[in-house]
Specification:
alpha/beta; Rossmann fold; 452 residues; 42% helix; 17% strand; four-stranded parallel beta sheet; homodimer; 19 helices; seven-stranded mixed beta sheet
Chain lengths: 452, 452
């Protein structure tokens, strides 16, 4: 069975990120100050982010130049390969043409380095010496720790407690990079102590870890905060994935009918899909975009589109997004990177406009998909990426039922080398399905702020 | 700091493997039958290996064609990149030019797939339905399990017990591929039961696991045995690494003064070094070759060059090699792939001829090197590969002392994503140095067979 791989030259690493804000049919709702209910300005964000990233957050320019220093680091693993999954197609006996972009080829094994390097660079440029951040499964934390090692910045990572315990390997990697890591909720912050006072056994969540990291950055002059998804500039940094894929489809002499990815905060999906969606919005070529989220944390499919906080401790501004309620703590699924109550504002806005569809899949189906994938393609997907694999398999089987051949592109955002415990549990029949937690979500939604 | 990466096109994947037997100044000593003391013939090996691999084992042809079906699978990850380690050079403040070939980019994260795919292919061609093999840290076992999944063969892996316990993640990967895995020594074979009778707490070794895998293959018509290193054909399959590196050095307009790699059974070293050494042997260009082995298992630096068995249970033919004694059980270092009592016959022969130098480095120095590497280059090396990194750092510091700039090439044979426990232990100060175990080796050597 022939390997079909699409490679680009180094010169084809994108020189600009794609900013979908330039092509929106209507602008996304503004971010609001929780005290005043008014749109926030750059000064409100300055304690947390370097000014260049704040500018990117609100920019309406279609193309934003990637600094040479960032492209130089990208060159270690970019352009990433795109593959046609021929052996998987054969195993599914489908007429579908399945393509995947493989971001696990970065040094820490996920797409997260696309933005961590950029964020570290801008912080370094503006004299920051320490970065705080949160991490779920650890993909983001290790990506940020790597970028900080490269740019000689201190890195402090609040890691969601259940992942800290389930995934010691990611912790080992972060520590090897020289990053400091603590399980969240921790006793190091007011936000962490408040959660622990109420829930001493809290397994943590991304929402809680964000509160802790934000608090430390806000209180220290030399420290800024860095987020691995959700925000506009983070989603934009990931568009190198889709921009490369567009070029690779030219090589393939094909074009995707559907582009899909797993979705937690939205950066993975935005990275592969926004460049294709931009072409659709500009009337150049049609495409269907599909977000695949965990049944245990289904913000797009079951959440409410309203203003909510980005964190559980309510330290952030208010963003209009699909949310399960910022106090909702998702079940301990292995896809820790998808355990977030909300969806990035741009993805939410585009879903509301009908430009992005979504589906929720339970953990067992995603691992079954991952095992089928590794046996066919050799690469063990991250639990987060298994959602994309499962979505792609569903779409491929639909093609088979309907007897049509569609081109399906998904983002294999990372490998699962640090998540093998999940596979050991799955192979031993010990994994839970975790269906939609209706009551908990209803309770969290009832506590939402009223504005918006 | 600029990334310097040397890439080849897919058309530059080698079409032939390089067989150094064609260029030896004198032929390597023959393999002997332990009963008769006479050289063995193909019929003696036929119960264990497909005939095509037996032919390759003794071939004197310089170039052996890589089947199209094998090249097609190689194309998923080959050609692998070669990098200039600029950030590491800067951290060491050395005038040396450090290059590394990165084989961790294969789906299972090591060079081992270069031969596992070839071996699975030839077995499949000759009607074999099941393959048995051994594995230390699990790199080889997962490479073979992947190849068996691709070629639809059953795969049974005897995994050295200490690694089975230390490295459950590799086991999870092998199982995800559908491979069957058992801790060795096991109760499934006579060889395993004999060891357990004498040493119920045996941590196992590659030598013991080989005995078990060989026994099962010898007793079952439909089953053949596959080895991940040591044998001539295995070393030859790895030469794609060095053949590509030669082309990449043309891009760099440079040539290595020294080529080095970690050495357990020798396939990693042979893979990167034999093509360069062949050029030296043919009088084309000089080069220094250096094997780096663990101080706990120093076959080249402390072993005896004599005939010995390839396994602890004495089921294999006798090979003339540098050996610590086939009953020697190395300490439980994390570099499980280097815990082998002997060195591949071709590497041993070339060391005896003065063409390969060797150095032994203790575990702590290798992990210090690995941590320095990941902080500079972003890639976490496998514990085995840390030996090469440590050797390269020593050579680079020598350049600094001497004030000369030499080009150093090493093989980063795999990543350490499945070995993070070792880094967690190292970072926590819990790792042992494991120096040369003089007495144990003297005892094992005293029990060697007398011939040769």
């Amino acid at each position: 069975m022939s390997t079909v791989k699409y490679l680009l030259s180094e010169e084809q690493i994108p020189r600009t990120w794609y900013n979908i804000q330039a092509d929106l049919p209507e602008p996304a709702p503004p971010v609001l100050h929780p005290g005043t209910g008014q749109p926030i300005g750059p000064a409100d964000l300055a304690p947390l982010f370097p000014m260049e990233l704040i500018k990117q957050e609100v920019s309406q320019e279609r193309e934003i130049e990637i600094p040479d220093e960032v492209r130089e680091v990208y060159r270690q693993w970019r352009p990433t390969p795109m593959f046609r999954a021929r052996r998987l197609e054969k195993a599914l006996d489908t007429p579908a043409r399945i393509y995947y972009k493989y971001e696990g080829s970065s040094p820490v094994g996920s797409h997260k380095t696309n933005t961590s390097v950029a964020q570290a660079y801008y912080n370094k440029q503006e004299g920051v010496t320490r970065i705080t951040t949160e991490t779920g499964a650890g993909q983001w934390g290790s990506a940020m720790a790597m970028a900080c090692a490269f740019f000689n910045l201190e890195c402090k990572v609040f890691m969601v407690k259940i992942s800290y315990e389930q995934k010691p390997y990611r912790r080992g990697l972060i520590e090897s990079f020289g990053g400091k890591i603590v399980a969240s909720p921790s006793t190091e912050t007011n936000a962490g102590r408040a959660i622990l006072a109420e829930h001493p056994d809290s397994t943590g969540s991304l929402g809680i870890a964000i509160s802790e990291a934000v608090e430390v950055a806000a209180q220290n002059e030399d420290t800024k905060y860095s987020l691995g998804s959700v925000l506009n500039h983070v989603l934009m940094h990931q568009t190198v994935i889709g921009l490369e894929a567009i070029e690779q489809f030219k090589q393939a002499d094909d074009y995707p009918d559907i582009v899909l990815s797993s979705a937690g905060g939205g950066s993975n999906l935005a990275g592969i899909a926004f460049p294709f969606l931009g072409r659709k919005l500009r009337g150049e070529q049609d495409v269907k975009i599909l977000a695949v989220e965990p049944a245990a944390c289904p913000s797009l499919t079951k959440g409410k589109y309203t203003y909510d906080f980005g964190d559980t401790g309510h330290l952030t501004p208010l963003m209009k997004m699909h949310t399960l309620g910022s106090t909702f703590v998702p079940a301990g699924i292995h896809a820790g990177g998808l355990r977030y109550h909300g969806m990035g504002a741009l993805v939410s806005h585009l879903a509301e406009l009908g430009e992005i569809d979504a589906v929720a899949i339970d953990q067992l189906e995603t691992f079954a998909a991952g095992v089928q994938f590794v046996r066919s393609e050799g690469i063990l997907p991250a639990p987060e990426s298994n959602h994309a694999v499962a979505g792609a398999i569903r779409e491929a089987l639909k093609c088979k039922e309907e007897g049509v051949s569609r081109a399906i592109l998904f983002n294999l955002s990372g490998h699962g080398h640090f998540d093998v415990q999940a596979y050991l549990d799955y192979n031993a029949g010990k994994l839970e399905a975790y269906e939609y937690p209706e009551e908990e979500i209803a309770m969290a939604l009832a506590g939402l702020p009223s504005m918006g």
